[in-house]
Structures are given as structure tokens and as C-alpha cells.
Write a structure and sequence with these properties.
This protein is 60% helix and 9% strand. The chain has 836 residues and is of the alpha/beta class. The strands form 3 sheets. It has a 10-stranded mixed sheet with strand order 3-2-1-4-5-15-14-11-7-6, with helices on both faces. The protein has a 3-stranded antiparallel sheet with strand order 8-9-10.
């Protein structure tokens, strides 16, 4: 640009002397100056950019003023001077009636302006008009930019699936004609993920975007991505990182003169400061243990709210007021708290996070006033809002992530009901706040040839990667390609809309009646102040029992998993093996002491339906003294257990179902020495069964037979993928069958036995939402899954699984069959999940 201007005779002089430009070149000089102004502004020099536009005015004819005003409006928009930007766009819009292409740009940019101000309805109007005009004149880029920003409108409106669909549509065009726009889209996709609680996924997207923006020297975009990265760190509980990213964004915004965006970054820093001063979720509002920081946080919040309001950011101002109100309440300044709550307002179109915080703050005020019933009503209203949002999501991934948004609400409510000491209330509360994704009716996506092709390529890559690893020469290119495709499949799954249908919350009465029929007790485990507690239902009596120390039990669970993994897969020196076996014995005894022993008086001789939490989600329960030989079932919640139990009971009441179960699906995967002998032995137990082995044990053949099967047994290598949980998999002849494949089944199988390593493991998200291969089967409606929570040797699996099926063949329930089969096994990492 500068070279071109120099050729025309323009001087870049500080004193304002622009040189002598011939009349015939002045229009061209004005165009170059306007483009240079935009580039200077994008690289952090907006005031210089605006000065260049003033210089350009000297060379413009009247018909060129519309273009200049459009450019000025854009620079003012990017620096947060939205009132001035709106004035420029208004005038430009009137002057560009005869230039539809430039008018389309103005309409789209004006839509972005209203979007930044939170005026979603106005933003949608201008973006749709701009998109229509851009398509009319053939400007595909601006039409796509409108689609991109309409996706952000959908996010603000709470329609996550629509937001992701629109962003995906824009991404397809950007990759083809404007790949430089992809980091901006990835930033917005990360904001969508933050809106449903997937902070770590959002952080990964934003880290890539920040690097790209720095490389492109796009200063405003980089600052916005850093701001969102601070929000991701805050959501993940990394307060130091949240403050660090906020400070970086604030510096960059202020250097640009963009004080509105700087205030938004400051709001994130304020939230991190509040959280650092209040480390206990739902902290005690009746006693102020840390008086010193609260007045400062309150003052900072009030002042920041005033600034945000002056920029037209009403929802963000409300969030700052709510933080100030909570700080004042902790400083025991009740009347000031009420005033700040009133100042916060409560717009129906505010982001869900702000609405949830408002309910939490009102609940805390009610607790302060001793009105615990009113506080619980507020909390339940907030969780109901969250559940409505979850019901509109079609992706199990997003449904489980959404619980993070209500974690503080749920924690506060749980503390309240525990203080009341009512076991029935604690039970009800657990059902309202734990594993809520399992109460959402699953969405079975329509057949998608493109996704099927991607999954087929993933299977091929899986085989190639496994082969190269076995040959001792890992293939990094194939690993990179696999990661890209896994990311693509996840993003496509996020676009599914939910059915809005939920499963009813189970009552203690209903659960108790079902338990009496099957001779089991319910045990719901939770933590309070570092101590384990359990809600129990036995013979329809609901009690609250004190267990042991949570940290001790969690550490024992981790050590036990590591020990069992170490004993599997390779020959160990005798002395080392003996040490590990002794450690296994010690850890099981510790877990029994901390968790099981206090429950034995309640359990008596009954079986147990256990709803674990956190680190206890992957315990091999049948190995613990006191539970060995006892039917034990693990469920995400009492509500999900009741649905599974009723479904399984209906099947077992009908003889024809049991007849069908005699001919199960038997599958033997590759690279397991005992897999084919295992399914061959099972085929003798079930005469007429035709095992899938060798080249016939493909993913498609397995899925076809698995659809609606009464009983399926799969002897295959299993892998729990902690980074991409729904790509946890079973290895078959033509590649992996992943958890995503389960969603393709039109009818869930009745019982699945996974004679494989790891696939009973889960990744636990806030709200005790679980993800993994077993969880995917349960979520899609399979009543019972038998799987291993650790590695398991081929030899041990064969004997244990054969014994299990012999017991099952007698007509007893899966949990009883597994308990009997495991009594003589030295180690039993298999667990009965679901109905039991």
C-alpha cells in the first residue's frame, strides 16, 4: 500500500503534509489510504488508521464518502466505540443505495456491531439482509461471514445445535476460499463449547487460534481469543491461568484503545479473583472467614458494572453486579447485597451462565436469612433451566459437558440438604444433580454417508497405526490424520439437536419397591468436607450413613487400578509380582475399610446397586472384602438404574426372550490368542450360535448383528481413550468399533459382555457425568453391560467369562451370575453396569 501511495506522490508525514498528488490519481490514492487504514488498525494502531481516513477524505468525491464511512465504522467497531461506529454505518448505509456489494458489507458489519452489544434480534436482521444482498451480487465471502455470525446469534439465543451447524457451514466455505478466516471461526466454536461446559476442548481450539492470530498479526482477533482463553481457564478452575490470559487480553485491548473489550477481559479477571477468595464451592455465606478481600471485590465489581453499562453491555454489567453482590454478602452487608441484586436486573435473553449465577446469588441471600426452603427453590429453578438446555442438545458429549455450568449450584444445594440431615432429601438431591445426561432421551442420527466414510478411514488408519506400532516404527503422519478425523467426527456430532424429551426423576419410593423385588440395596456415595457419606435404601427405608475418608479411598482406588494394570500383559519378575499382589490385597482392604464395612449392617445378605462418584467410578467392586460373591451393580444414578431394571425385567419375564438369548452374538477380535477358543467354548454353551471370527469379525457385520441383539459377547482388545472418550474402542478385523458407532444402532442390544481391557473405565465430568464405551451403551438404552475397569489377561478372561455364561444360562440375573463366577477367580476386574 505504501509503495503504491509513494508512486502516486503521497508523503507519509507527521505534520499532515500529504504531498502533491495529481488530480487524476486522487481517487486511487483514497482507496489505497482506506485499505492501509484498515491494515494499520488491525495491527494495533487504530488511531493512526483513523488519521489515514481523515487524510483520504481530502481526495474523495462525494460518491466515495460512503466507502470511507463504511471503513471508519469498521475501525470504530473493532475498537469498541460502538456508538460512533453505528453513526458511521447509518450514514454509509444511506449513501450506498446504488452500490449493493458495499452495502452488503455494511449490513454484515452492522450486524456484528449489534451482536457485540448483545442486541441479538437486531443483529440477526442485519446479518440476514447482508447475507441475502451478498449472495445476490455474488460475494460468497461476505455471505459466509454473515452465516458465521448468525451462528454466534444462535449461541446467544441458546440454540447450541443451530450454532454449530451454522459455524460448520461457514467453515466449509472458509476452507475453500478464505482459510485465513478459520482461526476466527475456531474462536467462536470454542465459545460454543464453553457455553456447554467443555472447557478443555474450548482451550485446545483457542490455543490454536491465538497462535494463528499472532502469526497473522491480527491484533484484535488475538486479543479476543486471549479473552476467551481466560474464560476457558476460569471454567476449568485454573485461576492463575485465567488471570494471566485476562491480563494479556486487557493489555492488547487497551493498546488498541478498545476499552469496551478491555472491560470484558477485566470482568473475567474479577471472576477469577472472587473464585480465588472463595475456594469452597457454595461457600458458607453465614460466616465470613476472609473479611479482607470482599469489600475490594465488591467495589471493583460495582465500578466495572458501571463501565460495562456505559458501553451498552447490559448482560455483562449484570454479571459484574452479581459478583459484587456475592462479595457483599460474604462481608455480611445484607442491605447492600439486596441493592446490588436489584441493580443486576434479569433479562430473559441473558446468557444461561448469568441466569444461573443470579439464581445462585438469590439462593445464597436466602441462606443468609435462614430461608433454606426458598434457597433450595432458587437452586432447583436454576438446575431446571440447565436441564432444559441439556434436553435441546443431541450430542451425549455436549449433554455431559453441560453439567459443569451448574456445578456450583448443585454443590450449594447438596450442602443445604446435608445440613438438614434428611436422607430422603439427600437422595432426591442426588437424582436432580448427578448424571443428568442419562435422563435425556438419546438421539439416533440419520444415516450420513460422509460420516460413514470418515469412520471407515479412521478404521483403516487404526489398523495401519497398530501395525506400525507392532513393527516398532510409529507412523506420526497417520496419527496426526487420525486426530484430525476424530476431531471432525466430534464436531459433526455436536450439531445434532435434542428431542427435548427427558426420563422422569426416580423417587425413593419407586426405587425402594424395585429393590425389594430383586433383593438389593441402593447405595449412593457422596462427599462432604472430605468425608464419604452414603444414602442407602434397604427394604424401602432411606438412611444416611457415614463412611470413611475420601482422599484415602480415592488414592487406594488409583493404586489398585495401577496394580491390576501392571499385573497384566507381560511376565514380571517373581519378587516384583509378589510385591504388586500384596499391594492389591492392601488396596482392596483399604477400600473395604473406608467404603464397604460401614455399609454391611445395612446390606445384610442383599446385593447392592451402587452409584459411585469421582475416583470411585472405576473400582472393581467384586474384589473388595464384604462384596465378594455378592451381586453388585454399578449405575450412573438411581433413575437410570430404575429405567434399566424395568426394561431388563420385562425381557426376563417372557420365555421367548430367554429363548432368544440362547443364540447370542459372539465376536472374536484379532491379535488375542484366546479370543477364538473363548467364543468357540461359548458357542457350546449356546447351541446354534455362529461366532464371528477372523475376517468375518468386521465392524459392519458386528454392528448389524448387535442391533437389537438379546445378548452379545465380544472378545476383543479394548482401549479407553481419555483424550477422546467417545473414541474408546474395540479392535475388530477391519479396524476399531468406537463408541460413536453405538449411536448408529436403531435398537440397543439387551445385554453386552465386553471381554476386553479397559472399556469399563470412564472419564468423569462435573456432576458425575460419565463418558466411555460402556457409558455410551448404557446411554443408548442397553440395560446391562459387563465390562472390565482395568486391563485383564486373556487367560483370566476366558475362564471367568465361560463361568459367567454358564451361570447366566441357568436363568439367573447378570449381577448374580458375575458374582458367582468371580468367587473362585483370584482377581475380577469385571463389573456389572446398568440393571444387574
Amino acid at each position: 500500500m505504501r509503495k503504491g501511495l509513494a508512486e502516486l506522490g503521497w508523503l507519509e508525514a507527521a505534520d499532515g503534509d500529504s504531498g502533491d498528488i495529481p488530480q487524476e490519481h486522487r481517487a486511487l490514492a483514497a482507496r489505497l489510504l482506506m485499505s492501509l487504514a484498515h491494515l494499520e488498525s488491525e495491527q494495533g494502531r487504530p488511531e493512526y488508521g483513523l488519521m489515514l481516513l481523515t487524510r483520504a477524505e481530502e481526495y474523495l468525491t462525494e460518491e466515495g464518502r460512503g466507502h470511507l464511512l463504511a471503513q471508519r465504522g469498521l475501525i470504530l467497531l473493532r475498537t469498541g466505540r460502538w456508538r460512533d461506529s453505528l453513526a458511521s454505518f447509518n450514514t454509509a448505509e444511506r449513501m450506498l443505495d446504488t452500490d449493493p456489494e458495499m452495502l452488503a458489507r455494511v449490513l454484515v458489519n452492522r450486524g456484528v456491531l449489534h451482536l457485540n452489544r448483545g442486541e441479538v434480534g437486531l443483529a440477526e436482521n442485519y446479518l440476514r439482509r447482508g447475507a441475502e444482498m451478498a449472495r445476490h451480487v455474488g460475494n460468497e465471502l461476505y455471505a459466509t461471514m454473515a452465516t458465521h455470525n448468525l451462528g454466534y446469534c444462535a449461541l446467544l439465543g441458546g440454540d447450541i445445535a443451530a450454532a454449530l451447524n451454522l459455524l460448520d457451514a461457514a467453515a466449509a466455505v472458509y476452507r475453500r476460499i478464505a482459510p485465513g478466516n478459520m482461526p476466527e471461526l475456531e474462536t467462536d466454536r470454542a465459545r460454543v463449547l464453553l457455553a456447554v461446559g467443555l472447557a478443555s476442548d474450548a482451550a485446545a481450539e483457542l490455543d490454536n487460534a491465538v497462535v494463528a492470530f499472532r502469526r497473522q498479526r491480527l491484533d484484535q482477533h488475538c486479543a479476543e481469543a486471549e479473552f476467551s482463553r481466560a474464560q476457558a481457564a476460569l471454567a476449568a478452575g485454573d485461576l492463575a491461568a485465567a488471570r494471566r490470559w485476562s491480563a494479556a487480553a486487557m493489555r492488547r485491548f487497551r493498546a488498541r484503545g478498545n476499552h469496551a473489550w478491555a472491560a470484558l477481559a477485566e470482568l473475567t479477571r474479577l471472576r477469577a479473583s472472587y473464585a480465588a477468595s472463595n475456594p469452597q464451592p457454595g461457600g458458607d455465606v453465614g460466616v465470613s472467614r476472609r473479611m479482607k478481600p470482599w469489600p475490594k471485590v465488591a467495589v471493583d465489581g460495582q465500578q466495572l458494572a458501571e463501565r460495562l453499562r456505559s458501553y451498552g453491555l447490559q448482560a455483562d454489567a449484570s454479571l459484574a453486579e452479581l459478583i459484587a453482590a456475592r462479595a457483599l454478602l460474604r462481608a455480611r452487608r445484607r442491605d447492600d447485597t439486596v441493592r446490588r441484586l436489584a441493580a443486576a436486573g434479569g433479562g430473559r435473553n441473558f446468557p444461561l451462565e448469568t441466569l444461573l449465577l443470579r439464581q445462585l446469588t438469590r439462593a445464597e441471600l436466602a441462606i443468609f436469612d435462614g430461608l433454606n426452603g426458598a434457597a433450595l427453590a432458587r437452586i432447583l429453578a436454576g438446575l431446571a433451566m440447565l436441564h432444559t438446555r441439556r434436553g435441546r442438545l443431541g450430542s451425549f458429549d455436549l449433554q455431559t459437558g453441560a453439567a459443569a455450568l451448574g456445578a456450583e449450584l448443585a454443590g450449594t444445594g447438596l450442602r443445604l440438604v446435608l445440613e438438614r440431615g434428611s436422607a430422603r432429601q439427600v437422595f432426591s438431591w442426588l437424582e436432580r444433580s448427578r448424571a443428568q445426561a442419562f435422563r435425556v432421551r438419546p438421539v439416533r442420527p440419520p444415516a450420513d454417508p460422509e460420516e460413514a466414510a470418515v469412520l471407515a478411514e479412521l478404521r483403516q488408519l487404526g489398523m495401519m497405526i497398530r501395525t506400525s506400532e507392532l513393527n516398532g516404527s510409529p507412523d506420526s503422519a497417520n496419527v496426526t490424520r487420525r486426530n484430525e478425523l476424530q476431531r471432525l467426527v466430534r464436531q459433526r456430532s455436536w450439531q445434532a439437536s435434542g428431542l427435548g424429551e427427558t426420563i422422569a426423576e426416580a423417587s425413593a419410593r419407586d426405587v425402594g419397591a424395585a429393590l425389594r423385588q430383586c433383593g438389593q440395596c441402593y447405595v449412593g456415595i457422596l462427599v462432604r468436607d472430605g468425608r464419604l457419606l452414603a444414602v442407602t435404601i434397604s427394604r424401602e427405608r432411606v438412611r444416611l450413613a457415614e463412611l470413611g475418608d475420601f482422599t484415602t479411598a480415592a488414592e487406594a482406588a488409583r493404586k489398585l487400578t495401577a496394580d491390576l494394570d501392571a499385573l497384566t500383559g507381560r511376565k514380571l519378575p517373581a519378587r516384583l509380582e509378589a510385591v504388586i499382589r500384596e499391594s492389591v490385597r492392601c488396596q482392596t482392604e483399604v477400600l473395604a475399610e473406608q467404603v464397604v464395612s460401614p455399609l454391611l449392617p445395612t446390606l445384610k445378605d442383599d446385593g447392592a446397586v451402587i452409584v459411585p462418584m469421582g475416583a470411585l467410578a472405576s473400582v472393581p467392586w467384586l474384589m473388595l472384602p464384604g462384596l465378594r460373591g455378592r451381586p453388585v451393580t454399578i449405575a450412573p444414578s438411581a433413575s437410570s438404574w430404575l429405567v434399566s431394571w424395568r426394561s431388563a425385567s420385562c425381557a426376563w419375564r417372557h420365555d421367548e426372550r430367554r429363548d432368544a438369548a440362547r443364540q447370542p452374538l459372539l465376536v472374536a477380535g484379532p491379535d488375542l490368542r484366546h479370543a477364538i477358543p473363548e467364543v468357540a467354548e461359548l458357542a457350546e454353551i449356546y447351541p446354534g450360535a455362529a461366532p464371528l471370527t477372523g475376517a468375518a469379525a468386521t465392524v459392519e457385520n458386528t454392528l448389524r448383528a448387535l442391533d437389537g441383539a438379546e445378548l452379545a459377547h465380544m472378545a476383543a482388545h479394548g482401549h479407553h481413550d481419555r483424550d477422546n472418550v467417545l473414541f474408546s474402542r474395540l479392535d475388530l478385523a477391519d479396524g476399531p468399533l468406537v463408541a460413536y458407532d453405538i449411536q448408529r444402532l436403531s435398537t440397543a442390544p439387551r445385554q453386552v459382555v465386553l471381554s476386553a481391557c479397559d472399556v469399563g473405565r470412564t472419564t468423569v465430568r462435573p456432576g458425575d457425568e460419565i463418558l466411555g464405551f460402556t457409558a455410551a451403551l448404557l446411554h443408548m438404552g442397553t440395560p446391562t453391560v459387563i465390562s472390565s475397569v482395568t486391563r485383564v489377561s486373556d487367560e483370566a478372561a476366558v475362564g471367568l467369562m465361560t463361568a459367567y455364561h454358564r451361570e447366566l444360562r441357568k436363568g439367573i440375573r447378570p449381577a448374580e451370575a458375575l458374582a458367582t463366577a468371580s468367587e473362585t477367580a483370584q482377581f475380577c476386574p469385571f463389573v456389572c453396569f446398568g440393571a444387574g
